[in-house]
Design goal:
Number of strands: 6
Shape: globular
Number of helices: 6
Order of helices and strands: EHEHEHEEEHHH
Oligomer: single chain
Structural class: alpha/beta
Strand order of the largest sheet: 2-1-3-6
Largest sheet: 4 strands, parallel
Strand content: 5-15%
Length: about 210
């Protein structure tokens, strides 16, 4: 069954490998990778993209308005894909003031509107290659947002992964590379959904 999928990413991060022109890295943007995923979903009909459209900008709106619109999209989705890119984190700003951590936090909450509950989303963090085609940057111990790191290797000690056959992972958030993800879109999404079915077996960190 098709799932509604929200994508969280740093729109203007240009420190990523250019998809269309390997000789012109200055025009590359993390948004290019969102377009690939969106086009794939539209062409296959496997899933429904619920994120921001390429011609849709929320930049002119006040922060509360942006937050409300993003919350609507996340509430109406089942899976949140986070695109990990080299410059996604603003080192001079608190994480609570940045959009990606807030979107992950909201995705992990139990929400209710008009007495209609919404369970936490499955989370899949896809690592994008840097402008040189490398993933080494993501291996640094101090890289990334705390809310992602806290939801890695967070299986409760009383639930060793060998105890359940499906959704078997030490981490609530899986982190495939771009090549791994695009070689098997549905496989990775289904794996994240299986983990979501066992969310009670994880120590989930929801705050930023």
């Amino acid at each position: 069954m098709a799932k509604k999928i929200f994508i969280s990413y740093k729109h203007g991060d240009s420190n990523v490998y250019p998809l269309n022109n390997a000789w012109n890295s200055q025009t590359a943007k993390a948004r290019d990778y969102v377009d690939i995923i969106e086009s794939h979903f539209e062409s296959t009909g496997d899933h429904i993209y619920k994120g921001e459209r390429n011609n849709e900008s929320l930049a002119e709106f006040k922060r509360d308005t942006i937050r409300g619109r993003l919350a609507d999209k996340i509430y109406d989705s089942t899976v949140t894909i986070v695109l990990i890119s080299p410059d996604m984190k603003e080192w001079t700003s608190l994480e609570k003031d940045q959009w990606i951590p807030w979107e992950i936090s909201y995705s992990l909450r139990e929400k209710s509107r008009n007495n209609i509950p919404s369970k936490p989303n499955a989370i899949l963090a896809v690592i994008l290659p840097d402008r040189y085609g490398s993933y080494e940057y993501a291996r640094s111990s101090n890289f990334g947002f705390e809310i992602i790191n806290k939801n890695r290797n967070n299986l409760k000690y009383s639930y060793p992964s060998k105890m359940f056959k499906r959704g078997c992972s030490e981490s609530y958030i899986l982190m495939p590379t771009w090549e791994q993800f695009t070689s098997n879109y549905n496989g990775w999404i289904e794996a994240a959904l299986e983990i979501r079915q066992n969310i009670d077996k994880y120590e989930i960190s929801k705050s930023v």
